[in-house]
Each structure stands twice: as structure tokens, then as C-alpha cells.
């Protein structure tokens, strides 16, 4: 069974990580986030869909993709969305040393600097962190996790199951994860318009982190 919403006790175990924005959500704000881009066709699709609803979002970008498609990274920024660090190569914190992991994260920071795009913080790939990363989180900057994981990358899920399990759990302050990647696109192109329409109908304001 795919877990779209983490048990409520998990954020309390790791309080230094940002799981939602309920404490300071204003005007029914909800936060859509997109991981693993930028990717030409897919990120452009996302930007077009967001624009239809005058929605803002946050893109946690892989450094090598930003370097390969700098014009798309710039188009995200110019459109008023925020961007964050998702490591240079989508590295797994459980499979490398802390030193190598931080070096990979810093390499992505350098790409942001080269493109003169501000980063709002960091999201660890796979949501995987290690004790050293949590201990050093205050030095790294904001580390964003999530309230709802759509699972758009999971081919074993159906469009309808993602929609049914996630929409009923969206509330003010929710941080929702999508992916602007080739793997997720079969789901994303179907579910994103429906998520946007649902939030619009419910009076949620879609904002960037």
C-alpha cells in the first residue's frame, strides 16, 4: 500500500525539517512542489497549467538538469515561482558518505549561483536524510519535506487512486509533492489539472514556499 500521507507522529520525530506550513498559512494557502526537473516538455506543461489558475509553486531542481536546461530554470524564476536545491545528481543520503552528500548539495548550490537564481532551501531526494544531515540542518538552511506525496512517479498506482487518496487530505498549509520528470508525466498530465481545479473550487490559494 502506497503511503500518500505520513503518520502524524513522523514530523514530531524530526522537528527541524519542514513538513507543512500550517502555522503560518494565510488565506487558505496550499503549496504545490515539483521535484526532479527541469525537463523541457514536462516543466513547460506544468508552468502552463499553473498559469491557467494564476497559481505559484516551488520547483526542487536537480543541478545537472538546471545546467542542461538553464533557460527553463530561468523561465520558472521569471514566472514568479520559487526554486530549491534537490542535489546535483539526485543523490541518496543513505548510500553515500555525509561528506560526499554535502559536496553534491553544494555543487547544486553553485549552479543556482551561476544562473543568478535564489534557492529557497533544500529537499533531500527520496526524502531520505541521515543523522548527520539533521544535526547540521541549521547550517544547511531550510530542509523541506511534505504533507502529501502524490506518488505520480509510481506506475502501479492509478490516476483515480492518487486523486481519491490525496484530494481529501489537502488542507491549508499542506505541502504537496509532484514530479516534473519523464517517469511521472503519464500521471502528472492527468492529475495536475484536476488538483488545480479542486484547489481553485475549494478556495485554496496556491503559493510558492
UniProtKB/TrEMBL annotation:
Keyword annotations from UniProtKB, A to Z: Hydrolase, Metal-binding
tRNA-binding among keywords: no
UniProt xrefs under PROSITE patterns: NODB (PS51677)
Segments forming domain NodB homology: 28-207
Signal peptide: none
Protein name as it appears in the record: Polysaccharide deacetylase family protein
Organism of this sequence: Aquirufa aurantiipilula
Amino acid at each position: 500500500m502506497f503511503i500518500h500521507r505520513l503518520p502524524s507522529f513522523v514530523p514530531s520525530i524530526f522537528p527541524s525539517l519542514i513538513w507543512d506550513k500550517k502555522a503560518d498559512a494565510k488565506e487558505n494557502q496550499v503549496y504545490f512542489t515539483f521535484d526532479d526537473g527541469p525537463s523541457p516538455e514536462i516543466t513547460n506543461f506544468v508552468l502552463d497549467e499553473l498559469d491557467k489558475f494564476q497559481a505559484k509553486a516551488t520547483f526542487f531542481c536537480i543541478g545537472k538538469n538546471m545546467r542542461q536546461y538553464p533557460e527553463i530554470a530561468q523561465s520558472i524564476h521569471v514566472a514568479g515561482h520559487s526554486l530549491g536545491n534537490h542535489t546535483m545528481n539526485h543523490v541518496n543520503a543513505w548510500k553515500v558518505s555525509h561528506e560526499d552528500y554535502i559536496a553534491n548539495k553544494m555543487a547544486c548550490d553553485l549552479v543556482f549561483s551561476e544562473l543568478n537564481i535564489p534557492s529557497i532551501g533544500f529537499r533531500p531526494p527520496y526524502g531520505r536524510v541521515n543523522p548527520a544531515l539533521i544535526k547540521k540542518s541549521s547550517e544547511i538552511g531550510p530542509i523541506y519535506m511534505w504533507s502529501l506525496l502524490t506518488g505520480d512517479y509510481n506506475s502501479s498506482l492509478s490516476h483515480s487512486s492518487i486523486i481519491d487518496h490525496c484530494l481529501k487530505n489537502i488542507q491549508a498549509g499542506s505541502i504537496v509533492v509532484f514530479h516534473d520528470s519523464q517517469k511521472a508525466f503519464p500521471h502528472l498530465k492527468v492529475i495536475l489539472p484536476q488538483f488545480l481545479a479542486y484547489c481553485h473550487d475549494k478556495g485554496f490559494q496556491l503559493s510558492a514556499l
